[in-house]
């Protein structure tokens, strides 16, 4: 019964991974004969300042975006989980950004942030008396990209945390209210501890996805201006398809995979410790 799924998994995951591992040991470029270079690609990778710069940009992007999405998603989930009218309509409205494809979101926000026609530049000119071109200013480009990611994926965090809130038992909350606990005490001592497994799962999923974000950033800035928004996904893309260094790009992909596995193991260990404590 599992054979079709195993064949599909083998075809789309295992075989490409093994092929990437193979060509990461080669000097493999389009139009040139390839040759075996062993671990030279990996040695060069750890000396590549551009790779480490892009990894730093990716870390900042991931941490800031996921943190903001978590705080906003939790606040919205707590708001909707309470006695609020039109809950169904609000949930539907919050889901809309998530169903928009990242490419469409990138194109839309590119028009919003553009210096000539964008509403953001118009508002900054009214408020500050000068026009800001967010996507062409190195100091503002990364915050603009983070804003787009937050707009698109806060709804995911909201839905996961809202489902977690609805799954919590009601007895501890009723007992706390009878004992005269304040809303803040209930949230700090009951809601957060009970919700921790759901929070860890939501953070794990969003961290893995944000770390590999490519399409919306590519549409918005293509890594620019300069390299101010060049995440590691864009760096790998440019290495493979602009500079045609496929072997070196494959080595970077495998190193990134190892980093993601380590981060996921950290989340899973925290989740396991929480389950054991419970």
Brief characterization of the structure:
With 278 residues, this protein is mainly α. Helix content is 76%, strand content 1%.
What is the CATH architecture term of the domain at 67-230?
Orthogonal Bundle
Main sheet properties: 2 strands, antiparallel
| Superfamily (CATH H level) name of the domain at 67-230 | MetI-like
Structural class: mainly alpha
CATH topology of the domain at 67-230: MetI-like fold
Query: Measured on Cα atoms, how large is the radius of gyration?
Result: 23 Å
Low-confidence stretches: none
Q: What is the chain-wise order of helices and strands? A: HEEHHHHHHHHHHH
Helix content: over 70%
Mean pLDDT across residues: 86
Helix count equals 12
Instruction: Please give the CATH class of the domain at 67-230.
Output: Mainly Alpha
The order of strands across the largest sheet is 1-2
Shape: globular
Structure summary, number of beta strands: 2
Q: What is the terminal-to-terminal distance?
A: 35 Å
Strand-residue proportion:
under 5%
Features:
mainly alpha; single chain; 12 helices; MetI-like fold; globular; about 280 residues; two-stranded antiparallel sheet
Topology:
Blueprint: H1 3-23, E1 26-27, E2 35-36, H2 40-46, H3 49-81, H4 87-99, H5 102-113, H6 119-128, H7 138-167, H8 171-178, H9 183-211, H10 215-220, H11 232-242, H12 246-277
Antiparallel strand pairs: 1-2
Helix pairs in contact: 1-12, 3-7, 3-9, 3-11, 4-7, 7-9, 9-12, 11-12
